[in-house]
C-alpha cells in the first residue's frame, strides 16, 4: 500500500515519486521477531520507504558510512514519515506546548535502540531504508529499520519510542497516530 518513495535532491530536499516503489527484500528477523497485529511473530510489511544518497561527509577514513550515521538516517526517515502521514502542522505543534497535548519536547522520544551492521554502504550509494511499525504498546512503539543497497542488506535496526505528555511522563499513543502512521496518504516530503 505504499504510494511512493522519498528521494534526496541536490539541495537536500526530498521528493516523493508516486508509483515508483523500489523492491525491498523481506526483513530478516533473527533476534528481532516482531509482534504484529495478528499476534504472531512475523516481519511487518514496510510502511514507509526512504531513499538516501550517501554523502562524502557520512563516510569514515575507510570509505564506508560511519555506523552512527545509519541511526541518524533512520531518524530522518522517521521525521519524514511522521510529517508525510501526520502533517507538517501536527508535527510542529508537537514541539510547542499546546492544548492538544504537545509537550514542548516533541511527540515521542527514543528510549532504546538496537542495530546489527551486516555490510557497508559507500559514498554515492543509494541507501534504501524500509521503516515498519513492529510493535504497538500502550505508551510505546517499536519501529524496525532495514537498510539496503541494490538488494544487499546493510543493517537491521529497531528503535523503541515512548509518547510523552506535557509533564514529560509517558502518555498513551493516540489512536489517530496509530492509524495515520500505517496509511500511505503522503505525496511529498522535504527535509
Notes on the protein architecture:
The protein has 191 residues and is an alpha+beta fold. The protein has three helices and seven strands, in the order βββααββββα. The protein has helices at residues 67-86, 88-94, 175-181; strands spanning 6-8, 14-16, 48-53, 108-117, 126-136, 140-149, 152-163. The strands form two sheets. The protein has a five-stranded antiparallel β-sheet, covered by helices on one side. It has a two-stranded antiparallel ribbon with strand order 1-2. Helix 1 (67-86) crosses helix 2 (88-94). Residues 1-42 and 185-191 have low confidence and may be disordered.
Order of helices and strands: EEEHHEEEEH
N→C terminal distance: 23 Å
Helix content range of the residues, please? 10-25%
Uncertain segments: 1-42, 185-191
The tally of beta strands, per DSSP, is 7
Using only C-alpha atoms, the radius of gyration works out to 16 Å
Using the alpha-carbon principal axes, give the shape.
Answer: elongated
Strand adjacency order, main sheet: 3-5-6-7-4
Hey, roughly how much beta strand do the residues contain? Answer: 25-35%
Features of the shown structure:
191 residues, five-stranded antiparallel sheet, disordered C terminus
Could you write a compact summary of the structure shown?
The protein is 18% helix and 29% strand. The chain is of the alpha+beta class and 191 residues long. It has a 5-stranded antiparallel beta sheet, covered by helices on one side.
Amino acid at each position: 500500500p505504499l504510494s511512493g518513495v522519498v528521494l534526496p535532491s541536490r539541495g537536500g530536499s526530498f521528493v516523493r515519486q508516486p508509483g515508483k516503489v523500489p523492491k525491498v527484500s523481506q526483513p530478516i528477523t533473527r533476534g528481532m521477531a516482531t509482534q504484529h497485529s495478528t499476534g504472531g511473530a512475523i516481519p511487518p510489511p514496510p510502511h514507509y520507504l526512504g531513499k538516501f544518497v550517501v554523502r562524502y561527509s557520512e563516510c569514515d577514513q575507510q570509505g564506508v558510512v560511519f555506523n552512527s550515521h545509519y541511526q541518524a538516517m533512520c531518524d530522518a526517515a522517521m521525521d519524514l514519515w511522521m510529517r508525510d502521514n501526520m502533517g507538517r502542522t501536527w508535527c510542529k505543534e508537537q514541539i510547542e506546548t499546546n492544548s492538544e497535548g504537545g509537550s514542548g519536547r516533541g511527540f515521542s522520544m527514543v528510549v532504546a535502540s538496537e542495530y546489527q551492521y551486516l555490510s557497508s554502504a559507500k559514498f554515492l550509494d543509494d541507501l534504501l531504508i524500509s521503516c515498519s511499525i513492529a510493535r504497538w504498546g500502550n505508551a510505546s512503539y517499536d519501529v524496525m529499520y532495514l537498510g539496503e543497497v541494490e538488494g544487499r542488506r546493510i543493517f537491521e535496526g529497531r528503535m523503541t519510542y515512548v509518547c510523552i505528555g506535557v509533564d514529560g511522563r509517558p502518555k498513551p499513543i493516540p489512536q489517530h497516530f496509530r492509524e495515520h502512521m500505517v496509511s500511505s496518504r503522503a505525496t511529498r516530503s522535504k527535509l
